[in-house]
Amino acid sequence: MSTVKEAVEVEVPVSVAYNQWTQFEEFPKFMEGVEEIRQVDDRHNHWTTKIGGVKREFDTEIVDQFPDERITWRTTSGDTKQKGTVSFQRLDDTHTRVQLVMDVEPTGAAEKAADLTGTIDRRVKGDMRRFKEYIEQHGASGSWRGRITPG
């Protein structure tokens, strides 16, 4: 399993950054290779990705969510194995640090090669950079401010 870490400082208040991250169905606007995310309910999402010509579908579960602080998830089905946390740190009234820490277990030959060559790491860094550009240009398009606790 590989761990990928990336952080960006965004020029929006913490609530704006957090609110946009809760809009999972909009991830394809800034995440490369994510074709679609369908939010099933408050805890569950169904993902469709296509990376390096390989299409994957998998489900995720949010296991911990605390408004303006963090969202933690894990995969629950499909042949993609990952878990991670995105955290939000208020720097001042108009700046927020968004940090993503994700553990990815490459499952197929293409994913293992991408991991070895650093492609996964570069993709996450690019996704975070695109999130920064997106949120600073558009602001949040919605929000979900509920609390999900582990267990």
UniProtKB/TrEMBL annotation:
CDD domains: SRPBCC_8
InterPro entries documented for this protein: COQ10_START, ORF3, START-like_dom_sf
Pfam families: Polyketide_cyc
Cited Gene3D superfamilies: 3.30.530.20
Highest taxon, organism lineage: Bacteria
Domain Coenzyme Q-binding protein COQ10 START residue range list: 10-131
PANTHER family to which the protein is assigned, alphabetical: POLYKETIDE CYCLASE/DEHYDRASE AND LIPID TRANSPORT SUPERFAMILY PROTEIN (PTHR33824), POLYKETIDE CYCLASE_DEHYDRASE AND LIPID TRANSPORT SUPERFAMILY PROTEIN (PTHR33824:SF7)
Descriptive protein name: SRPBCC family protein
Annotated source species: Streptomyces tauricus
